[in-house]
Description:
- This protein is of the alpha/beta class.
- Helices cover 37% and strands 23% of the residues.
- It has helices at residues 18-42, 51-60, 117-134, 154-161, 163-166, 220-236, 276-296, 316-328, 346-351, 379-409, and strands at 68-70, 74-79, 85-91, 140-145, 169-178, 185-187, 191-194, 196-205, 209-210, 245-254, 260-261, 264-273, 300-307, 312-314, 332-334, 353-360.
- An 8-stranded mixed beta sheet has the order 1-2-4-3-5-16-6-15. A 4-stranded antiparallel beta sheet has the order 10-12-8-13, with helices on one face.
- The longest helix has 31 residues, at 379-409.
Amino acid sequence: MTAHTDPAHTDPVHTDPVLPVLRTALHEELPHARQLRRQLHARPQRSGDESQTRDLVLAELPGGQNADLVADTGAVVRIGAAGAAVAIRAELDALPVREQTGVTWAADNGLMHACGHDVHMAALVAIARAVHRVRPATPLVAVLQPREETYPAGAKDVVSSGILDAHDVVAMLGAHVQPTLPERSVACTPGAVNAAADEFVVTMHGAGGHAAYPHLNRDAVLAVAQCVVSLQQLVSRDSDPMTPAVVTVSSIKAGEAPNITPSTAVARGVLRSLSMVHRSYMHDRLRAVATGIAQVHGCSATVEITNGEPVLRNDPALTDSTSSYLRDLGYQVSDGYRSCGADDFAYFAERFASLMLFVGVGDGSGPPLHHPEFLPDDGAVDRVADAMLAGYLAAAGAADRSAKTTAERR
């Protein structure tokens, strides 16, 4: 791997003796990890049906034969002795996207790792094998998580199972490729970095009839159309412009024939916010807007809101320490990247001191995430593994300090 340099930071901050040893071991594992990434990429599996992917990764992990199975098709593997541990998550599932990259190792089953999960899994294998070889004081728990792309969220099931508590996990790490960030950078941002993600269904109930006699009907189509327009104003006119939020109507369904006014019309969409308080407010306003517009048109409205992932918040202390390690590893560090994207890693962050890192794999000019042509280069495995290494060392230091404090109190 070519070393990255940051002109603004050339002198190491840390004298951690584990850093150079562990990074050397990690780099020796990377060639194998790149090949594993290609195997995983060529054999994607749908959310909830990832058992073959899980088993392939387990076969590459030290102690994988003794894994604890969790969340139906997921697994947890401990590397190291007893005591407080640091966990790193990698996602198992692929997307229902037909690949158009043209590489010889492209998937051909109508599914695709178009969100970088193949890279994340391979990088986790590399860091886990390096930790196994070096045997640092803090154990690593590898979390192979299913169902990141769909509901019910795999991360929520892993947390509620109690398996991470049983392994004495004190910090949780994740790293995600991000094509809008340049290859020499890693976003390590404190606080909210991904939005709470909810889905909504608005059903307008009117009175159907002959389309030539609109005065005898109660037009649910007109009501839902006005509702769609008004919902856009929840962000532009009903929301603090300093609080990021998104309302998107992505589906409208009504009627079957041109000469019949349907009795119902349905709009579906997503609502996202980087504030849990604002999230609740937006829910209330969405219901009020739909109900009010329905009444104006002589209709009634049914509003269903399905809560998805909460806001993903990075632990400030863990973020700060990891940033220093990343600079020592030669990466440019950004502390301002946030998005209204969502990730069920947020459920881990609700329970543990957590950090989600975004690793640059482009400059924003190429295909985005979830695109049939999205394909990070093999070097993305190296960069994601480095990010995981930085987070692991930062979290391990915090775990060691916590253990010492607990021992002193006894």
